[in-house]
Amino acid sequence: xxxxxLEVRDLHKHYPLTQGILFKKQVGAVKAVDGVDFDLAAGETxxxxxxxxCGKSTVAKMLVNLERPTSGTIRYKGEDLTKLSPRALKAVRxxxxxxxxxxxxxxxxxxxxGDIIGEPYEIHPEVAPKGxxxxxxxxxxxxxxxxxxxINRYPHQFSGGQRQRIGIARGLALQPEIIVADxxxxxxxxxxxxxxxxxxxxxxxxxxxxxxxxxxxxxxVRHISDRVGVMYLGRIVEIGTxxxxxxxxxxxxxxxxxSAVPVPDPEARAHRERIxxxxxxxxxxxxxxxxxxxxxxxxxxxRCELEVPLLAVPAVFRLTDSPAKHDSACHFAEEKQVxxxxxxxxxxxxxxxAGPGETxxAGPGEGSGETxxAGPGEGSGETxxAGPGEGSGETxxAGPGEGSGETxxAGPGxxxxxAPKSL
Length: 423
Fold this sequence. Notes:
globular; seven-stranded mixed sheet; 11 helices; disordered C terminus; alpha/beta; four-stranded antiparallel sheet
């Protein structure tokens, strides 16, 4: 792995619980993030997955200092961001930018696109002199696939995918090294998700960006990520390369997550083991002792209640060259093949009936021989400068892929009979 430009160590964020009106007394704390460790290398994409409420978005906000950590360190090129003065932090912040989850509420409806994308230049005027800002904003619109002439339009005049492109352009304005993308495609249609993910992929190559990519969709995370971290109740419970996590998971929670991925082949689906977790996720205000997953784990033993498992390579794999040799916070970690491998063969521990040729982590309808969501800009006769996938005759600002005569379910701007482009 290349040298880390971002190092997160023992990161905590606890929100106090208080009682009383006049005399407030702290009676507990919601442990939203409770000891997170990871590194991010230059040019790398780290995906973070986990169910709602596990602390993913709180980690993202702390990385860009929208939330102050309760404890722990966030080092950017060796400099601890948690201890910087406001002036020093302002200088570092231009190198770590964020793309928000909701493209509808993250843009000010009273500001034009030009003002939204150009606002970072007001805070960091050294990046773009005043007379040069309009040209720079138009260049950014062009980079993300929007018509530079849209600079005077308002957010409500754009579709969801186009708004997210505006949010990405704003994130690129200060030429950052790291972009924290907090579920950037979760509010978009599947075909538009493909366009935005492909755009992020292209921008990473063009501008040498590093991403912390947070999402629920396991297939998208695998497509874009070099490494993946799985979070549960405020902590990372397993982390490794995308192949290690998807093809050779060792933590029971990761295995349960992957078993929930839809398999399009009915025959394979009928024979595949589905791991059903019992009980509810414990409250972050009352985390179980020992292993926090033990209340829902089928492997739980007395040791799990008494000892907190460390995020490290399990002892059973330390002296091996197995692809399962990666960090996993489980006392009884073992490899279990949950998602059918991409090469069509069965890996150790594969469940019977797993159909060959299925894509690991694929969404519904992404079975063998099928191609998932369409790529951008494939409609003929596009309006000059229009967003990717906008067929001819569309109203400016209309949603991607709304050209007439399209096959239902086809990707943006597809003609009848055309196969959509794969993620």
